[in-house]
Amino acid sequence: MPLTTTSPTRTTSISAAILNLLLPWHRTTDRAPATAQEFPHQLRRIADFVRQGAPVVFTLPGFPCKSPNPAKVLGHLPDRGERLSLSFLNALCGDIERVYPPGAQVIICSDGHVFGDLIHVSDTHIDAYADELRIQIGRLSLSRLSVFDLRDVLGDLPHAIKRAHVQARHAPALNALRAEIRTDAQALALYRGITRFLVEDTADWTGTRSALQRVCRQRAYGVIQRSRAWGDLIAEHHPHAVRLSIHPQPVGAPKFGIRLLDAPDAWTTPWHSVALRRRDLSWSLMPRHTAQRLGHLVERGGRPSHYEER
Fold first, then answer.
1. Edge to edge, what strands does the sheet with 283-286 contain?
2. 25, 195, 250, 279: least surrounded by Cβ within 10 Å?
3. What is the largest CA-CA distance in the chain?
């Protein structure tokens, strides 16, 4: 049951305390550390929940599917990297509960089906990945997490029809997106980052490197269009949630970029990498071909799980 409403001063204090718990994990390319007051959008959203005495709801688009490049990942199902990341998010909600008893919830908005055709991953693998996320959340008793995907919106329609529906209803026009990328530094950084991922995720290209880059640049526009469309659809279904992002975000942006695990690159995610357990017991994300040089493979339940440093 919601608590009684709080005073404006206490609402402000609690909201800042909640945001301060997120700040150490801010995923950004900005170099200077920021204070809670530099995130007015997030503070307003959090305050809306605190004012009502309700759990703070976060939405996190991501956890789409594994990269199709076997040099980067261990297979098409979630592994230790995803389990660590999910456990981290659940623990973060637990930390919030200690400063704000109603606590918090994170809705994982698994977006693989939104652009599976553009990233060259089969819908069968995407379904298996999202299903395994739900299994792991239950198995690990991560009660503060849930998964939301296109099946929750459009049921059992064929995946191609779902994608066409989302694109037609929510995606920005291509010309407008091109113009934005030409003039907005943050949009350009996202475009370049996605293009790089598409190039790196291509394992079976037989043409030239320059030809691959041209193809991936075109596909990157489509990925961004669909990603924006998915964001709008999430906002329709969860209009009051605090929006998290797995992409780096500048201080004060409407979305709060969140780092799930340590990685040398601000763009690295568990689904584009493997987890390496270092000798000091810390964890880091990296491409599979790098982890293989540094450690030995560990299996769990008959499946590849992660690497441990030699």
1. 283-286, 274-277, 303-309, 295-300
2. 279
3. 64
